[in-house]
Amino acid sequence: MNETIKLAIKLFVITAVVAALLAVVNMVTEPLIEANNEKTFNETMAQVLPEAEEFEEVDVEITPEDGAVTVDSVYAGRSDGKVVGYVVAAVCSEGYGGDITVMTGINSDFTVNKAEVTEMDETPGLGAKAQGEWIDQFQGLSEDIEVDKNGSAQTDNKVEAISGATITSRAVTKAVNESIKAAEESASLATDSSADTNNNSEEDE
């Protein structure tokens, strides 16, 4: 009986020590991981909207029309103090392997400058091609982009589906389309806010 108690105490002490060590390691590594994620995020923003010299997060709550898409963040890209476009991070839950996160750089005329898939779990050699040259098709396109499979698209505002990965193609496209809408909404709110400020200034005079 005493041996059983001693063994239980030893196991408890070992477990407590291991848990404490893991907590310390987590405390040390968590800030490093967060800093690295932030660095990667900022670098990707610069890649998708290189015209911008700085980025400022837009305080706006976006509710996408497509329920499969969530808009994580919207940033206004500025150069010489002027907004030259927007960068939107959006997630579509309808990827073949689950969530697909897309960061889209959007020009001031609301055409796509560049898009990048930043997170995904799609099939290598098929859906994973969305992280390659395929996504360059979005450049220059505007809202309501269609996925063309065997000539199914009705407009030129389209991207060719990845062969064997139509689900992935549509998920990425949904994320990009909702990103463009989010940029338009953000710009509209900024314009309305500016107009209200000007009207208040005139009233004060």
Description:
With 205 residues, this protein is α+β, with helices and mostly antiparallel strands. The chain is built from 2 helices and 7 strands. It has helices spanning 2-48, 166-204, and strands at residues 54-57, 69-79, 82-95, 98-107, 112-119, 146-148, 158-160. A 5-stranded antiparallel beta sheet has the order 1-2-3-4-5, sandwiched between helices. A two-stranded parallel ribbon has the order 6-7. Strand 3 and strand 4 form a beta hairpin.
Write the layout of secondary structure elements.
Layout: H1 2-48, E1 54-57, E2 69-79, E3 82-95, E4 98-107, E5 112-119, E6 146-148, E7 158-160, H2 166-204
Parallel strand pairs: 6-7
Antiparallel strand pairs: 1-2, 2-3, 3-4, 4-5
